[in-house]
Amino acid sequence: MTVPVAAGIQPEPPPGFYAPEPELRNCVDNAIERHPALLASRANYQATRERVPQVTALPDPTLNVSQALRRVETRVGSQTGGITLTQSLPWFGTRDLRGRVALSEADAQFLRLQAEEREVISRAKRAFYDIAYLDTALRLLEEERSLLGHYETLARARYATGQGLQQAVIRLQAELTRIDDRQRQLTGQRRTLAANLNTLCARSPETAVPPIRPMEPPAVSLDRAQLMDLGERNRQELRAATALIEASEDAVELAGMNFRPRFTASLALMNVAGRDPADALGPLPPDEGKNSLSLSLGVSLPVWKDKYRAGVEEAGHRLTANRRRLEEAQDAMENTVELALIRIETIGGQLALLETVLIPQSEETLRATETAYETGQVGVLDLLDGERVQLDVLRMRARYVSDFLIALADLERGIGTRVPLPAGGSS
């Protein structure tokens, strides 16, 4: 859906946010196109735009028709009635100021619409990345279940030949039951998140969300000064607050216009009835029976100074309030960016620790346990513990990747645009 852009606002070029996954981008595109809350805000914005021609137009002229109940005799005949056309005229520059206020308010409404779109995108990405983690966790659970099934078969065989313990068989069966329960929990969580994602993307809650492939965290540029600068230039709430300040400044000047007079121009046509020459005592004047045409100008007298002074004070207080809201939006942007940066840096360190230390250690431990199991030095339960440690580490990594992408979405929400990628990075 194409939305008219308010004066002074440049639409952000696509894609405007990090989302290489086609399913996520399709979901977000559908949300922007059809989400009821965004459609309502879009209609409000379009309604706000329509105020501009209303406030800049002149007041409607007034047409008065009069009919004399008792004729007024004049030198040139009797005045029987007339028509008067009156037009009110505001002080010079008043209509231009009204238009500037309306345009700035339309700009602010457009930017609030963009902020709502950003919020929907952020929430959709959160749900999507949580589903991605659950899909990875379910795949790892299925892999763990397959291994446990294999180990249970081995344990049963060894127990049947007197080489193993019944305890091993019971322990493995209990682990299989635990996995079944965990799978049900994660499946239920996925259904809840999928319904939430579908609602955000303006789709039926029952729409199937296909399994999401494992993702990797992108390389991003995390220069704090650069991100703060991007936030100040792009954060929609900041720009909306700035537009409202501009509207309020013009509104203060507009309120001051009330101390200036307003004008009224009137054009009057009076109908004059001609007389019968036979009834005249003498010769009729040459302009006998000609209608009269007159032009008059009026001016209002702004004598109620207290009323107009209160209007200026009201506009000034609104200007002060909007300046405070700009400060609040600035603080919110900085806080969001700071918190997201901390999370991204922390999670990045945790991922680095996993990939450089924990994952290699778990793989090495598992290989050593498998070798010991093949030579009969350890039992199946020891092998099971080694397998579980490795799967737990892989699950931990999947959770960190998901949290990294969620923090990245929060950072994008904070700065109001896509986080810059290093040179040569893809979107």
Gist of the model:
The protein has 427 residues and is an alpha+beta fold. The protein contains nine helices and four strands, in the order αααββααααββαα.
SSE layout and pairing:
Layout: H1 22-34, H2 36-49, H3 51-56, E1 62-74, E2 77-89, H4 94-160, H5 166-200, H6 224-234, H7 236-256, E3 263-273, E4 292-299, H8 305-374, H9 380-415
Antiparallel strand pairs: 1-2, 2-3, 3-4
Helix pairs in contact: 1-4, 2-4, 4-5, 4-7, 4-9, 6-8, 7-8, 8-9
Q: What features would you describe in this structure?
A:
The protein has 427 residues and is of the alpha+beta class. It is 64% helix and 11% strand. The protein is built from nine helices and four strands; from the N terminus they run H-H-H-E-E-H-H-H-H-E-E-H-H. It has a four-stranded antiparallel β-sheet with strand order 1-2-3-4, with no helix packed on it. The radius of gyration is 39 Å and the shape is elongated.
